[in-house]
Each structure stands twice: as C-alpha cells, then as structure tokens.
Amino acid sequence: MSHSLAQLRACLEKTLDKKIAQLQENLGELTLIVKAEDYLELARTLRDHPDLGFDQLIDLCGVDYSEYDNATWEGPRFAVVSHLLSVKHNWRLRLRVFAPQDDFPLVASVTPIWNSANWFEREAFDLYGILFDGHDDLRRILTDYGFMGHPFRKDFPISGHVEMRYDPEQKRVVYQPVTIDPREITPRVIREENYGS
Fold first, then answer.
1. How far apart are CA 60 and CA 96, in angstroms?
2. Hey, what domains does the chain have and what are their CATH numbers?
3. Nearest 5 degrees, angle CA 110-CA 112-CA 113?
4. How far apart are CA 85 and CA 52, in angstroms?
5. What average pLDDT score do residues 157-174 get?
6. Which helix or strand (DSSP H or E) is residue 109 part of?
7. Rg for the chain (alpha carbons), in Å?
C-alpha cells in the first residue's frame, strides 16, 4: 500500500469511525462501503471535512449484482457506486452503497452535495430502476419515455420487449412486439483431416 493510500485509509477511519460498513483496498484503490441510511450524511462529510475534501464527483453508476462473478450473489442486488476526487489532497475514492430492498431499490440522492450527480442518477434510474430520494427531476435520460423496464438489469431480455420502426403509411414511428426470434448461434468448426501434418 502506498503512503498516500495508507494516509487516506487512516483519515477515513479516524473521521468516519463506526459509520464505515467496509473499507476495501484492491488494485491500489480504496472502496468505502456504507449503509443506505448513512449514505447522504457520509457523502456530505466526505465533501466538507477539511481532512478529506472530496470536492468532485467524477462518476456515479448503478450495478446489478444478481449474477456476480458467475455465481449467485448473497446480499442486496442493486448498488450505487461513485468515484470521488479530492483535488486538495490528490486522493481518489470509490464509494459504494447498496439499496436495502431489491424490489424497490431506493437510496438518497447526492445531487444536493455534488450537482454533477444529476444526470448520472437519472441514468442509473433509467437503466437499472434505482430510485434516488430527493432528486428533483428523476426521469428517463437514455431510453424513450414510453420504454418498459430497465435494460441493464441482468434479467432484462437481450432482444427487449418491443421494437420501433417508421411506418410510411402512418408517417410516424410505431411500436410493435419484437419480431426477432431468439436463437443461439453455435459456430461451425471446420477441421481438415491432415491439418498440421
């Protein structure tokens, strides 16, 4: 562990103490895992505490852990992962919070703390169905407003539920059931009898 990473770990442990659910180091980066009920308060502390000073949210995304690492995941299904930057200290931190309920994934919005989270949270809602309590304008951002479901969930069908096309007779875009037949493509292997001899 580098000196800077050890210093960040010590500072997090001192400042956040018992609010830390887990603090993991992997590939030279720290991941701070927090409980959903502590998420907003800890995010504010990460930004405002002078010893931490994480003034920039670089990225925020949703994660579906339902089939993590080719196995069944034990624990909450949906998480929100943020990447933070402290310009003052030249530190980076990954912040992860799990939504307590799989059927209604809800975590606090951090847009009041970092306004750059706005569109990222909308994207996580659109693609994963994760709701952000306190977000001012939580609506779809990448899919159509009439889109059904959340396409990055691992149980969403690859072909989707509907397709759209332009209808020249109606002179507008229409939605219809998917016309693509699901199939498995198995490559044909061609072998020569005397290959390599």
1. 10
2. 3-148 (3.30.460.80)
3. 65
4. 10
5. 83
6. none
7. 22
